[in-house]
Amino acid sequence: MASTSEDNICPAPLDGRAGIDAALVKRLVAAQFPQWSGLPVTPVEVDGWDNRTYRLGEELTVRLPTAPGYAPAVAKENEWLPRLAPELPVAIPPILGLGEPGEGYPFPWSVRGWLPGTTADRGRIDDLPQFAVSVAEFLRALIRCDPTGGPLAGDHSCYRGASPAHYDEETRRLLAALVGHVDVTRAAAVWEAALTAEWQSQPVWFHGDLAVGNLLVVDGKLSAVIDFGTSGVGDPACDLVIAWTMLSGDSRQAFRQAVGQDDGTWARARGWALWKALLLVQQNLGTNPALAAVNHHVIAEVLDEHDRIGQVSVWQ
User: Fold this and answer.
1) Are 123 and 245 in contact (CB under 8 A)?
2) Every domain of the chain and the residues it spans
3) Where are the alpha helices (DSSP H) in 285-314?
């Protein structure tokens, strides 16, 4: 299954992205993996932003980065996903081959096993609170994985897993630009709380893009987590954003209880959610009212939760 997440606001896609097509994939596979050269190549039904993905026969996929900033994820996933997979409660992408630049394509690429399932649209989930618990259990298992030697949060992860302070200047510009569209006074309080709640524990594994398009379901239940391109070791707060982007009410409460994070981590998570939602509102005002409205709702939920919980006096 291809990632459909738009959460990675990192590099722009490669100029000439349309040049990544089935014909290119067939040439790359024939040149580097001749054992699979006879398999048909077809685009996936829903593609991602940072990579293009193609089916290779019935059991394989080919995944190609679209920009230089996404290319380092290929080697990272190739090294670490096989190590993480045995420790996780649901499937993650199996890496079957590491391709090299060639045929006019400038980046490394990969061949993977196809994971069955559909993206986690709420309409496909039978029991959303139980689904939320399953996601929390995945995160708890990921956090327990040995971080020794893992890639520290930084440019390769779009600074997910680092302090939200990396986006401080941008967030303050967004707040200034959205006066009259967002309650910027309350939003600024959420952001300040996120910056105050500094991560002071040892780095742990994080996914970095835990969005609806990267969660697969089979028979209404979580079956796989895909797209570890922004994964690394650092602060897990960025992975809690799904509490507002997908969950609400009972399911959000079930996730909060099952994931077991402290108040400071939740304060940083609200900061991550606010930054992304502000950015999407600003980008889509006047051009995509529906998407702007969705992110207005995320902002409202984050502000309301911050007001209910209030500042805590001691951060971890």
Assistant:
1) no
2) 17-115, 119-309
3) 289-309
